Known about the structure:
By secondary structure, this protein is an alpha+beta fold. The protein has 19 helices and twelve strands. It is about 40% helix and about 15% strand. Strand 4 and strand 5 (about 115-120) form a beta hairpin. Mean pLDDT is about 90; it is low at about 1-35. The structure holds adenosine monophosphate (AMP) and magnesium ion. Adenosine monophosphate binds near residues 153 and 505.
Amino acid sequence: MWAQSGSRDVSASSQTGTSSARARMLDKPRPGPHMPDMRATFDNSYSRLPARLFSPQTPVPVAAPALVTVNAPLARELGIDPGSITAEALSGNAIPEGATPIAQLYAGHQFGNWAGQLGDGRAVLLGEVIDTHGNRRDIQLKGSGRTPYSRGGDGRAWLGPVLREYVVSEAMAALGIPTTRALAALTTGETVYRETPLPGAILARVAASHIRVGTFQALASAGDTGGLQALTDHALARHAAGAEGALGLLEHTVAAQARLIADWMAVGFIHGVMNTDNMTVSGETIDYGPCAFMDAYHPATVFSSIDRGGRYAFQNQPDIALWNLAQLASALVPLIDPDQEAAVAAATDALDRFAPAFRAAWRARFAAKIGIATPRDGDAELIVRLLKSMSASGADFTNTFRALAEGDASAHVTEGWDDWAADWQARLAREPGDPAAIMRAANPAVIPRNHRIEQMIEAAVAGDFAPFHRLNAVLATPFEATPDSADYTRPPEPGEVVRQTFCGT
Ligand code: AMP
Ligand code: MG
């Protein structure tokens, strides 16, 4: 009944004992017509899909929710008056009018092994809104308590990963890289227990959708072809207007992921846990766990403490993306063609487009990073030579490319700079346009460096949120070197180097 009606079960919030909080919310002056509140814009299409895909789930209330920050520009983009956002509404203690909270089903491969049903064990989708550009966006509460899919976990999150995801996802957005967004971070007033007691927190996350490769895998593994078809149609409508059928969705996802991984590589980003449940069909980066930006460039860099074999190392990301896309293809095979052999052949053709699409996107991104707007034959080799010299020199990835915009990275690239620089200058002489301007638009001055994130989390756990706010402010304009950002462009001192990152969710 829930799935069909699309309307909220009014008894849900009274069951949680929060009806008075909700009543308080509704007492507030109604926003004007240009600032509709959350209730006015919810339209929850996912909760109208077949019931297997989700479970109605009211967020489990928390003791004392308090907002750490609200992303006011994003709220406005969603048609929500930032001033109307309360800790109650985004902690789940009060359900906004029009929301139909659900936990979404998905499965997946973790580190290459089939793990079966995985989630979502610690997040609730409040619903969808249509943003000011006409795009449908999910609003999800991550850390909102147990769900029917929680397995052993408590469904909660602690402050560290919540602030990390807030900072890094917003930095990615400012870098122009497709990503889920952070609408708000909250503390819950509760303690969560990992290895030690830690402050509980919730992230209000916004996404084009939360449909993962693993969402399709969950239905395929259950043999639910009807559900698979409904999810495919839904995903096509949301993400691949103009594409047709399961093959069209696969082709669209292949292209979107090829571009995304090239985007990551061009800023030195390592996702860290590219399991199939952490890859979207929208092409947005999702699930910032043990992710990290490289300081010194080395292609084999791994940060995640649980990635012992280096499966998700920096340079492996394109291969892993293709591996994940092959799992999506397998799940979709029954929909592609009734003749299985023909379906597999078509899916294989679609997957074969990944490598050339990735190479083209990679070359375009890295060409811009050395000042070339229109790549030609030979440019990829020039880029690879620089990268090899950088890795031999232990050069800082971000600062080396930024120094190129000033024409001289010899202080960073100590191995083979002169030869490379001569060939580079000869190539730039044949290039129209202003290479320095191209480079300054392609090479960020500031990225969320690991040691800054660790310092920020440590301060926040001790009650000082000033570093969190400063970091967000500096990362909002990553291509501008300002006096404020100077200290954030510095690589870590030996004592500050972060060698491992942790899921720690
Ligand atoms: P991740 O690899 O971080 O994306 O996590 C994989 C899945 O593990 C999530 O989708 C959740 O369903 C589950 N999970 C992680 N942390 C928790 C938690 N604290 N409580 C319940 N489930 C969790
Ligand atoms: Mg995940």
